[in-house]
Amino acid sequence: MNRILHILTQAQELIRDPEHWAKEAYYATAGGKIATINTATCFCTAGAVRKVMGTGEDPLPALRILRSLLPNGTHDNTEGPILVWNDFPERTHDEVMELFDKAKELARANAA
User: What is the DSSP letter of 30?
Assistant: First the structure.
């Protein structure tokens, strides 16, 4: 399994349970309070990728794949569009899971 596919798979698993998905914070507690990467039990889309990668690795290659699949596929060099998309009031956990599924397909295709 290529590295980006591995990261996306692990990040998706981290938030597969809707109780572990967060909005409006990279990292949060089960009660919704902002937490650190080490104390969090809930993660936004980008926060899940960052948690899997830890602090020693650049998250942008994995985040770029997610970002490229967003509506109006923005290709700037930040994770801001992912944060905005994740935090959209009507965003659902199912949509987040679908984004990860599509990103993993793209990562597989890019590795072939």
Answer: T
Distance of alpha carbon 64 from alpha carbon 29, whole angstroms = 26
pTM over 0.85: yes
Q: How far is CA 65 from CA 20, 25, 41, in A?
A: 22, 21, 24
Distance between CA atoms of residues 2 and 34, nearest Å: 32
Q: What is the rounded (10 degree) CA torsion for 38, 88, 101, 68?
A: -100
Enumerate the H helices of the chain as residue ranges: 3-14, 45-53, 60-68, 80-87, 93-111
Beta strand 42-43 with 27-28: parallel, antiparallel or unpaired? antiparallel
Phi and psi (nearest 5°) for 72? 60, 30
Read off the pLDDT of residues 1-52 as tens digits, 9 standing for 90 and up.
Answer: 599 999 999 999 999 999 999 999 999 999 999 999 999 999 999 999 999 9
